[in-house]
């Protein structure tokens, strides 16, 4: 039966036409054996019109019963209740389909059609990606990895020696600087050109580099402000919030990689920025009209060298102010409505998914014929229950990391 199903499936899979394959059956109306056999496989099992590849367990039991009854009963062994058999197969197929849908977390629960449409739109917006890479590779505080993009959209990176790495590390980086393309269509058309996307070795290196050492990502500028009477210090912190898979005794039976993947489906990485001083968050108007403005080479100054003198004179408690501002930033992100809403949504999504999984696994365990199969299913049910609990813990207490920190000193424009 399995071979017959596979042969029909190959016709459907490799045929030029889109319609299902036509199955021609040669019958012998005068033969009880042939008639009963065809009625069994067509009306009972349905292999001539639908795929039965996923219900092999039930078909194996049907075959075993048929073999056992064939000699003592003869052709009557083939004359079973085909309507009842078809109902059993349909019920089995329904349970398996539900289980497969639940197993496919990304498509069934975590990536609906509207999210996929948003991904397609985001994928097409390459200008923001191009600008981000330019800021990362050129200008104050950049990595000094020169990038040149040709007219046909191929970007080439050079000067790995200018990043400040050890000689061996610089050589390793040099091997990653293969031609890239921000437009996916260019990468498809140009041989040897990879899309600048997650998964590319150079992109992975950049991510690891940016997340390696917080001290290497600290910066400070001075910005003149008209009408300001006294210098003020504001600290900009960027936090990365992610699902925490955790490693403890309660997750020994849980696959950590699978847990992390399922957790990220519900609680996707979240980035939150804060502007704070020692007393709390910056006013919204100040943030939007002054602090969030891009660096202006004609007006702003990078805080270094001799610039430190007047700044430290005006702000003698610089170190203490930075510490208290960082403390307020951590308080802001932990109490952020954006974080609370993300956790609440992720918790609800995780509970719904886990409930569906557990219900299917429990029903499946009850229907298995042998004690060994039921024992294995109960073990799988227990692992899924542990996974569900670990998911909720990882969502409720996510990891929060400060990934960048920068100081902005607002200075009276009159004496800048």
TrEMBL record:
Residues 75-102 form a coiled coil. Keywords: Coiled coil. This is Unannotated protein.
């Amino acid at each position: 039966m399995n071979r017959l199903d596979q042969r029909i499936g190959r016709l459907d899979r490799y045929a030029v036409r889109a319609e299902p394959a036509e199955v021609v059956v040669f019958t012998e109306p005068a033969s009880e054996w042939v008639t009963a056999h065809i009625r069994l496989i067509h009306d009972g099992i349905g292999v001539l019109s639908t795929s039965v590849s996923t219900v092999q367990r039930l078909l194996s039991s049907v075959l075993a019963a048929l073999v056992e009854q064939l000699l003592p009963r003869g052709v009557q062994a083939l004359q079973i209740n085909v309507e009842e058999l078809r109902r059993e197969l349909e019920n089995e197929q329904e349970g398996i389909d539900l289980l497969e849908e639940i197993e496919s977390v990304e498509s069934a629960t975590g990536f609906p059609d509207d999210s996929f449409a948003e991904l397609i739109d985001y994928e097409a917006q390459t200008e923001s990606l191009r600008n981000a890479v330019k800021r990362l590779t050129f200008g104050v505080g950049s990595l000094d990895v020169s990038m040149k993009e040709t007219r046909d959209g191929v970007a080439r990176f050079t000067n790995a020696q200018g990043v400040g790495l050890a000689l061996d590390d610089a050589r390793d980086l040099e091997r990653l600087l293969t031609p890239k393309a921000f437009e996916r269509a260019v990468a498809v058309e140009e041989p040897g050109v990879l899309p600048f996307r997650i998964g590319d070795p150079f992109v992975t290196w950049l991510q690891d580099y940016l997340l390696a050492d917080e001290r290497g990502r600290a910066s400070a500028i001075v910005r003149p402000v008209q009408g300001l009477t006294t210098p003020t210090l504001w600290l900009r912190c960027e936090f990365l919030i992610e699902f925490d898979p955790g490693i403890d005794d309660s997750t020994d039976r849980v696959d950590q990689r699978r847990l992390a993947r399922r957790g990220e489906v519900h609680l996707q990485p979240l980035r939150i920025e804060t502007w704070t001083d020692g007393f709390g968050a910056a006013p919204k108007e100040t943030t939007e009209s002054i602090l969030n403005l891009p660096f202006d080479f004609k007006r702003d100054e990078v805080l270094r060298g001799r610039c430190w003198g007047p700044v430290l004179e005006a702000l003698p408690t610089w170190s203490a102010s930075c510490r208290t501002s960082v403390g307020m930033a951590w308080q802001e992100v932990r109490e952020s409505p954006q974080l609370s809403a993300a956790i609440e949504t992720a918790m609800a999504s995780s509970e719904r998914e886990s409930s569906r999984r557990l219900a299917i696994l429990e029903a499946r365990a009850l229907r298995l014929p042998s004690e060994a199969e039921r024992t294995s299913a109960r073990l799988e049910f227990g692992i899924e229950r542990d996974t569900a609990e670990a998911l909720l813990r990882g969502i409720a207490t996510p990891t929060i990391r400060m990934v960048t920190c920068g100081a902005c000193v607002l200075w009276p424009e009159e004496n800048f």
